[in-house]
Design goal:
The protein has 11 helices and 20 strands. It is an alpha+beta fold. The N and C termini lie far apart (51 Å). About 2% of the residues have low confidence.
Length: 429
């Protein structure tokens, strides 16, 4: 019976079409082989990546590959790719690891970003911009009534993250970083409590990769920090559960981002509709995990059903995820390690926006990494400069926004005072 090398499988389905007995099934990102398999070998020939193995094929152990870099970045989101690109531009040898087979997919983001926060890192390009926005509208929904506030004059974008993230990774490669997809960090190399590299699993098997500094940019689900002894546990009250559809066939202002607040709509959070051009929009919401009495997806379904202009649309994509909206982590660094982006909880607690924060953190981490490598000092004391610079630049504002969020209980987030704060905050989402 054929077996699957899951770390190599690309889930393309080529094997399914050639199987004469219907023994192979593709279920999203899982390939299944059932007992009807007659081990004919046709699927082995059809597989473009050698991910299938016949029952009589000899089992071979992958030879561990020893490699050394100045910096290994785990995670090719915006923060990780910027950290890799700028580390390479500063003359460091860099490896960028991405566990998924495609950088930028799946998207787990509303995709909004302010112009002023984007341009320090990359010039806007129509190839990865779905809409340019200049207006925001906030609607309060509750007790059978609605009230709307509007603001104009800002400049921002709704990105196409699948393309945007890939471009950032390509920029890192152009700068000299080596990019490896479908390669997951599975642990850290530790020596007397000091991070000396990563253990990775990829198509070539298990690898031990040595480096001077690891940058953990592996998202809200980050394991890099805990492996190094950092406590990144997120309390439920600081976790937002999110769901989003890309709706097609709707009519909304293509230059306006819409926000909806109300306990019945999204307890502790808000709903949004961000234009994506040509009658499309990202329509989603986030709910505070400890307040929600239903799943985020069910809240989203109910919200859309209550908005006739959205209910007429057809969902063509569904994405789900979690967003950390807690206070700053007590520590962002360890000996030989720095955390950036969602892995470092560097998200605006009022809005849940984190792209710009992650990119800034990636730049700061790269600058500190270059200094640390040059001085042959990657101790926690040396890398603490990254944490200091983050706090001085953007971290202080995030800490303030968390205090503001905590000042207004979930039932007070439709008050005029909170809405004024929120309107200012979403201008930089």
């Amino acid at each position: 019976m054929v077996t699957i090398k899951r770390d190599r499988c690309g889930y393309c389905g080529a094997c399914v079409g050639v199987c004469p007995v219907g023994a192979i099934e593709l279920a999203e990102t899982r390939l299944l082989v059932n007992e009807a398999c007659v081990d004919c070998g046709l699927c082995l020939a059809a597989c473009p990546v050698g991910a299938l193995k016949s029952s009589d094929e000899a089992e071979t152990e992958a030879v561990p590959l020893r490699r050394r870099y100045d910096v290994v970045v785990v995670g090719a989101g915006p923060g990780g790719s910027v950290a890799a690109r700028e580390s390479a531009e500063l003359g460091l040898s860099v490896l960028l690891l991405e566990k998924r087979q495609e950088v930028g997919s799946p998207v787990r983001c509303a995709e909004g970003m302010a112009h002023d926060l984007l341009v320090p890192f990359i010039e806007p390009d129509p190839h990865w911009i779905s809409a340019e926005v200049s207006k925001a509208e906030i609607t309060v929904i509750g007790d059978g009534t609605t009230a709307t506030r509007q603001a104009e004059g800002g400049r921002g974008y709704v990105l196409e993250r699948r393309v945007f993230d890939r471009v950032l990774a390509e920029e890192a490669a152009k700068a000299g970083a080596q990019v490896m997809v479908k390669t997951a960090a599975t642990g850290l190399l530790l020596e007397d409590g000091v991070v000396r590299g990563v253990v990775a699993q990829g198509p070539a098997g298990s690898m031990e990769i040595e480096c001077a500094i690891v940058v953990g940019a592996d998202g809200v689900e980050s394991q890099v920090g805990p492996w190094a002894g950092l406590d990144t546990t997120l309390p439920l009250k600081d976790a937002m559960a999110c769901a989003q559809y890309l709706l097609a066939g709707i009519e909304i202002d293509p230059a306006c981002c819409y926000y909806y607040v109300g306990q019945e709509v999204a307890p502790g959070g808000y709903a949004w509709a961000f234009p994506k051009g040509e009658g499309k929009a990202n329509v989603g919401l986030g709910v505070q995990a400890d307040l929600a009495t239903d799943s985020a997806l069910n809240y989203l379904t109910h919200f859309i059903e209550g908005q006739p202009h959205l209910a007429q649309g057809s969902p063509v994509t569904l994405v789900v995820g979690g967003v950390p909206v807690g206070p700053p982590l007590p520590c962002l660094v360890a000996n030989g390690l720095m955390l950036v982006g969602d892995a470092a909880r560097q998200v605006d607690p009022l809005t849940g926006g984190g792209i710009a924060n992650a990119m800034l953190a990636g730049r700061l981490a790269a600058e500190v990494a270059a200094q640390a490598v040059a001085a042959s000092d990657t101790s926690v004391a040396a890398l603490a400069l990254y944490e200091e610079r983050w706090t001085a630049s953007r971290g202080r504002k995030m800490a303030r926004n968390y205090r503001l969020k905590e000042r207004f209980g979930s039932g007070e987030r439709t008050s005029p005072d909170f809405l004024r704060l929120f309107m200012v905050a979403v201008g930089g989402i």
